[in-house]
Design brief:
The complex is a heterotrimer. By secondary structure, chain A is of the alpha+beta class. Chain A contains five helices and seven strands. Chain A has a five-stranded antiparallel sheet. A two-stranded parallel sheet of chain A has the order 6-7. The longest helix of chain A has 48 residues, at 2-49. Chain B has one domain. Chain B is 69% helix and 2% strand. Chain B contains nine helices and two strands. Chain B has a two-stranded antiparallel sheet. Chain C has one domain (7-183). Chain C is 71% helix and 0% strand. Chain C has eight helices and no strands. Chain C is globular and about 60 Å long. The two termini of chain C are 13 Å apart. The chains are: A alpha+beta, B mainly alpha, C mainly alpha. Chains A and C meet through α1 of A and loops of C.
């Protein structure tokens, strides 16, 4: 009886050992590729939310059990240098956390957002990433596709440009958005929700508001630390 | 041993989803687009074939009463290989398939074939069995996805079909999955009963 | 305040994001055991127990072993082996406490190991943002509880309907799986009604 338990344990242990051994090799091979990709994705997101800006430094502050990362950036426009910041907002959505890269200038106006991670319902919350593709299937198949150039940015994210993140952002249930609606909505600092995905919309909006508040505090503390150098 | 038969049985006669009724979890959730369906088939078939190979090789030395955890460990190893490979080389697909990649490890088809077939047969038939089952799984998944993507999101392979048309989103959600599969099973039953007569 | 967050998790996993009818996980046992109400109830409770225990142990292992030692990629194999062990344990307990239930559940009891929903909730716990912030472990366990209760709810509803379907006049080719799936589809549609719920 004991011999058989011993034998079973040994075989299980051996299997686990072999498995982990093989996997750690695969991990070693794929790790650098994965790292490079995540860096690339981050750079792409930063470029998207801070168009035309040169990224400065990346800073992290500890907050509420986790860490808040933000980037400084600046752009020279003739004689003036404009400062901007980017941060990652994370808030639980309908199913899982939604991660948004947000770019703001130093008045708190949003320069752009890019939703980098979400697992919302396809057809509902996942429409945050929906961008009308320029070509239809038939055009692609029969070779009559238009020159694609740059894919249009998802309307849900595009509408955040110009929103004041430092103030309360309102949500209207319009279900859609186009450039013509921009002025009216920006005046009231409102964004249009996706039909049937108010929770997702709220998660993105709350994340931006909270992230902005955390950014403010972090910047103030950083400034204070600069003024009073450590002894 | 009729090798050809071992391969083709998984496609029609013993189609895992439509006849054996296993492997349904990923089927319904992943068939929202044809692209997802094809990649899931690739991933699951890879795991199926290789775990069949290993199980077939070690079947003599594995004590019967711990064979299930051992099989699970073997399958899980290949699933992690797929996870890491997809994450590194196809990150968009990795994101699209989401939790269903690790869930390949509990796909009844893979554990089922390891237990039913690979643990009782040699390597070559096991490979063929895995290939056939994977193909059967993939075909069913793709047909399902074809209907759901077209009707539910007005797209095929990510490209819009009829510009301006509002699709029946419910097809990409759970109810659409259930209904479409019900139709396929009904069709399958009708075909089989006609054959019997 | 945190109590509200826990309540939200519970309500959303049971109704809004029901694991079977909304996230389409846990189908195999859902179709296999939902023929009779009493075995459905037994199965459901066993799954709740396994999910709660699994959520607890897998979350701890992920947060305090896998992540700190940078072996998070071993999540799948670690989780499934923990679940397999738990199910073995539950099997032994049920066999001793209620042999009747043990026999009526039959093969489906060890099959809880391959229940997508159990591994699913373990994995979803690690991706729901519970790792940072307070009460992460409690939130994970509550999510496991909610997932199990939602699964049981769906199972009981299906069993109730199937018991009636047995004596209904169904066309030959629709009997068995096809009609069950149509029923499930209708149930899923009904549960879609929860999706706009504000808590």
């Amino acid at each position: 009886m004991n011999a058989s338990i011993l034998r079973s344990t040994l075989i299980l242990g051996l299997t686990a050992f072999v498995a982990t051994f093989a996997l750690s090799h695969i991990k070693a091979i794929t790790h650098p590729v994965i790292q490079k990709q995540e860096r690339q994705k981050q750079e792409n997101a930063l470029a998207l939310v801070l168009p035309g800006y040169t990224i400065g430094e990346e800073r992290s502050v500890a907050v509420n059990g986790g860490s808040f990362t933000y980037w400084t950036a600046e752009k020279t426009d003739g004689p003036a240098t404009m400062k901007a910041y980017a941060f990652i907002a994370e808030k639980p959505g309908y199913s899982g956390a939604i991660r948004t890269m947000v770019g703001v200038d130093d008045t708190g106006t949003v320069l752009g957002i890019s939703i980098i991670r979400q697992s919302e319902t396809p057809g509902l919350g996942a429409r945050v990433l929906e961008a009308a593709s320029r070509n239809t299937f038939f055009q692609v198949v029969t070779g009559r596709a238009h020159e694609t150039g740059e894919e249009p940015s998802p309307w849900f994210q595009e509408q955040f440009r110009g929103i004041n993140a430092a103030a309360k952002i309102g949500i209207v249930k319009k279900g859609d958005w186009n450039e013509a609606m921009r002025e009216e909505l920006l005046q009231k600092n409102e964004v249009s929700a996706i039909t049937g995905a108010t929770i997702t919309t709220k998660a993105v909006k709350d994340g931006i508001e909270e992230g902005m508040a955390t950014l403010r505090t972090a910047l103030e503390e950083h400034a204070k630390a600069q003024e009073a150098p450590a002894r | 041993m009729n090798y050809y038969r071992e391969f083709t049985k998984g496609i029609w006669e013993k189609n895992p989803i439509l006849i054996l009724g296993i492997g349904m979890c990923p089927t319904l959730a992943v068939s929202t687009s044809v692209s997802n369906a094809l990649w899931m088939t690739l991933a699951a078939t890879f795991v199926l074939i290789f775990s069949n190979i290993i199980v077939s090789l070690v079947k003599a030395v594995v004590p019967s009463h711990i064979r299930i955890p051992i099989f699970i460990a073997i399958i899980a190893t290949f699933v992690i290989i797929v996870e890491l490979t997809l994450k590194a080389f196809q990150p968009d697909i990795y994101k699209a398939l989401g939790i269903f990649i690790p869930l390949i490890v509990v796909n009844c088809i893979i554990l089922g074939r390891a237990e039913e077939f690979a643990s009782k047969n040699t390597v070559l038939p096991s490979i063929l069995d895995g290939l056939g089952m994977g193909l059967g799984f993939g075909l069913t998944l793709t047909v399902l996805a074809f209907f759901r993507e077209i009707l539910g999101s007005n797209r095929l392979f990510g490209y819009t079909l009829i510009p301006g048309m509002e699709p029946a989103t419910i097809m990409t959600l759970a109810p659409g999955a259930f209904f479409t599969l019900a139709m396929m099973l009904w069709g399958m039953n009708a075909l089989r009963s006609r054959k019997r007569r | 305040m945190e109590i509200k967050a826990l309540f939200v998790i519970l309500i959303s996993t049971i109704f809004i994001n029901n694991y079977v009818l909304s996230q389409i996980l846990g189908l195999c046992p859902f179709l296999g055991v939902s023929r009779k109400l009493d075995s459905a109830l037994g199965m459901g409770l066993a799954v709740v127990f396994v999910m709660v225990m699994a959520s607890f142990f897998t979350f701890l292992i992920y947060k305090y072993v896998l992540v700190p030692y940078d072996i998070a990629y071993l999540r799948t194999i670690a989780f499934i082996l923990v679940i397999a062990g738990l199910v073995q344990f539950v099997e032994m307990v049920i066999e001793n406490v209620s042999p009747v239930l043990y026999h009526s559940l039959g093969i489906f009891l060890p099959l809880i190991t391959t229940n997508c929903a159990v591994l699913g909730v373990a994995v979803l716990n690690t991706e729901a943002g519970f790792l940072t912030g307070n009460l992460g472990l409690l939130k994970a366990v509550v999510q496991g509880l909610g997932a199990g209760l939602g699964f049981t709810l769906a199972l009981l509803l299906m069993a109730g309907i199937r018991e009636r379907l047995e004596i209904a006049d169904i066309p030959e080719n629709l009997k068995g799986l096809p009609i069950t799936f149509i029923t499930a589809g209708l149930m899923a549609m009904a549960f879609l009604g929860f999706s706009g719920m504000k808590i």
